[in-house]
Design brief:
The structure is a single chain. With 281 residues, the protein is α+β, with helices and mostly antiparallel strands. It has three domains: 21-80; 83-178, Immunoglobulin-like, CATH 2.60.40; 179-281, Sandwich (Immunoglobulin-like), CATH 2.60.40. The chain is 26% helix and 44% strand. It has three helices and 13 strands. It has helices spanning 13-24, 26-80, 171-177, and strands at 86-95, 98-107, 112-122, 125-126, 130-134, 138-147, 157-167, 181-192, 198-209, 215-226, 229-241, 246-253, 263-269. The longest helix has 55 residues, at 26-80. It is elongated. The mean pLDDT is 82.
Length: 281
């Protein structure tokens, strides 16, 4: 005999009242839902129409405001972007073998280290390409020795390309790590014969390495000007300069005669702290 799967538990009074209410109000609920959806769609259409009309009349002004805002952000970006290398001066110094080319440049950025390639050009000729690294707020001489051909300062140019910028995260920390090299007691000595001929020109100075670094090679740039005219440029490479060491240095001057006593002598370390090969490990 088959059994019907009918619920054996009777409905309660509360359930019967809910079922009766739903049955008697079914038509009204259907109408209410239709009215709700119609009203909702009307609101959407109205809002869309309002936005479309507002953009038609006021959208160009809003676009102009966005454009001005974007220009403001671009201006801020330019303010914080690194400034290009500043070329302070260019010199062509005649020698017995041709010309020594000199550029005085600076990295005026306080938070950027710059590595770049460079070369000199004059009269349609280009020198070989070299690479240099400049730390923040650093001035530096660039030399190119024994270039042939006629060179004039007005024709001389410095070409800078392939710049690689590195932002400094901690300026104070980097400043504390910079090499502190002191040059003092600079003296230019001449030996003059009875005939008046100048012989045995020497440049003497004292170098003090007050940094924490022991240098395998310490390069110095030397520039001597006579009556505001550059007469000599050269480099000196000192070996095994220990930390806290003082050293007397003598450089013999040949190939040019310097008579004036009014000399401007600049001796500057040329150190790239990123080059580990210059240090004694």
């Amino acid at each position: 005999m088959e059994q019907n799967n009918l619920p054996t538990r009777p409905f309660g009074d509360r359930q019967l009242k809910r079922l009766y209410w739903y049955t008697t109000h079914k038509a009204q609920l259907k109408k209410a839902s239709i009215v709700f959806f119609i009203t909702f769609n009307m609101v959407l259409v109205g809002a869309s129409s309002y936005l479309l009309i507002s953009y038609y009349f006021y959208g160009t002004d809003y676009d102009k405001q966005l454009l001005e805002l974007s220009r403001g952000y671009i201006s801020i970006g330019r303010i914080f972007a690194p400034r290009p290398v500043n070329i302070i001066a260019l010199h062509a110094v005649p020698t017995s073998k041709g010309y020594d080319l000199v550029a005085r440049i600076s990295n005026d950025n306080s938070r950027w280290i710059l590595t770049f390639d460079y070369r000199f050009s004059y009269g349609g000729y280009q020198t070989r390409t070299e690479t240099v690294t400049m730390f923040n707020e650093e001035e530096k001489y660039l030399f190119m020795f024994n270039e042939s051909g006629g060179v004039s300062a007005s024709d001389l140019q410095l070409e800078i390309f392939n710049p690689r910028w590195e932002r400094i995260k901690n300026v104070a920390l980097l400043s504390s790590k910079k090499a502190n090299i002191i040059i003092d007691k600079i003296d230019f000595v001449r030996g003059i014969q009875s005939s008046g001929k100048v012989v045995d020109q020497e440049l003497k100075f004292t170098l003090s390495n007050q940094s924490v670094y022991d240098f395998r090679t310490l390069n110095l740039n030397v520039l001597i000007s006579e009556n505001k005219k550059v007469k000599l440029v050269t480099t000196i490479a000192l070996s095994n300069v220990k930390s806290q060491e003082k050293r007397d240095v003598t450089l013999s001057i040949t190939g040019v005669t310097i008579l004036s006593s009014r000399l401007d002598i600049k001796i500057e370390p040329n150190i790239n702290l990123l080059d580990e090969s210059i240090f004694i490990k």
